[in-house]
Design goal:
Elements (H helix, E strand, L loop, with lengths): L1 E7 L2 E7 L4 E6 L11 E8 L4 E3 L7 E5 L3 H6 L9 E5 L4 E2 L5 E3 L6 E3 L1 E7 L15 E8 L2 E2 L10 H4 L5 E8 L9 E6 L2 E7 L7 H9 L9 E3 L7 E3 L4 E6 L3 E10 L1
Parallel strand pairs: 6-17, 8-14, 9-20
Antiparallel strand pairs: 1-2, 1-5, 1-14, 2-3, 3-4, 6-7, 10-13, 10-18, 11-12, 11-17, 12-14, 15-16, 15-19, 19-20
Length: 259
């Protein structure tokens, strides 16, 4: 099942994407997010009549650095022995087809295609054996990075936290059983520039959830983005970048002018 958020007549609504043409409006009885909790309102909308939004409203986005063997090799870093994490703020989130803003203080802004894990149940100190039970579903993410603002040694958050630097969407897919064997691709202006599989993860999704929830509470709607495969590169104003993940869909965003 694919869940979305969308705007219609200036109202933000939740929905179930029935097919490429139709969304059924739903409501949630509380904060928890599981497919069987969704309640249909009886209203439906044509996809062409609405604007898709980011599919969730995270209080925080936890990001994995160097979680693909191919990317670690590309960057000439040793494989990490523990997950390397940093954070993006909620203000960095945008939805499908919204513009990525190119910050004036940067001279190089990069794309990074990533699998997004959306938390469905409050999670704290979760064991990896039960970790996937706390997941609502999976989506596409672009971990946009001002590469020239990212020091080789030190914190990465500044370079990755500009407004609009976390495109998410287009939907949350709840039917994925194994998130650690999905094909992921990135297209710059329709040209394939990234291609990999989450099977190349150094740390599995379950291991990541165990590690992150060991120090902080993950709330329903929070997002973990799980690292990028090899092939990162620069974006320019006017470019369009698409993240495609098997079974989930394609997230497309363009880059605005510097400012």
């Amino acid at each position: 099942m694919k869940f979305v958020r969308f705007s219609f007549e200036d109202r933000a609504l939740d929905g179930l994407l029935e097919n490429a043409e139709q969304i059924t409006e739903i409501t949630w009885p509380g904060e928890q997010r599981k497919a069987d909790l969704a309640k249909k309102t009886g209203k439906s909308f044509k996809v062409e009549d609405v604007t898709l939004l980011a599919p969730c409203l995270p209080t925080k986005i936890i990001c994995l650095g160097l979680n693909y063997r191919s990317h670690a090799e590309e960057m000439k870093f040793e494989l990490p022995k523990k997950p390397i994490i940093f954070m993006k703020p909620s203000t960095s989130v945008i939805g499908p087809h919204q513009l990525i803003c190119y910050p004036s203080q940067s001279r190089r802004v990069d794309y990074e295609s990533e699998l997004a894990v959306v938390i469905g149940l409050k999670a704290y100190r979760v064991d990896h054996l039960q970790a996937l039970d706390y997941v609502f579903g999976y989506s596409c993410a672009n971990d946009v990075t001002a590469r020239d603002q990212q020091p080789a040694a030190g914190q990465w958050t500044y370079a990755k936290s500009f407004d609009t630097f976390c495109p998410l969407g287009p939907a949350i897919e709840t039917a994925i059983v194994n998130p650690d064997n999905l094909q992921i691709k990135g297209f710059l202006n329709k040209e394939l520039v990234q291609e990999g599989s989450t099977a190349d993860h150094i740390f599995t999704v379950a291991e990541i959830i165990e590690f992150v929830s060991g120090c902080m509470t993950l709330l329903p709607g929070d997002v973990i983005i799980t690292g990028t495969p090899a092939g990162i590169g620069p974006l320019q104003p006017g470019d369009t970048f698409a993240v495609n993940i098997e079974k989930i869909g394609t997230l497309i965003n363009s880059v605005g002018e510097k400012g």
